[in-house]
Amino acid sequence: MAEQFLQETGEAQTPVRLDEVDRKILSLLQQDASLSLDQIAERVGASKTPVWNRIRKLREAGVIRRQVAILNPEALGLEACFFVLIRTAEHDRDWAQRFLKALRERPEVVEAHRLAGDIDYILKVQVRNARAYDRFYQSLISEVRIYNVTALLSMEEIKATSALPIAEAAR
Question: Where is the HTH asnC-type domain (predicted)?
Answer without folding.
Answer: 18-79
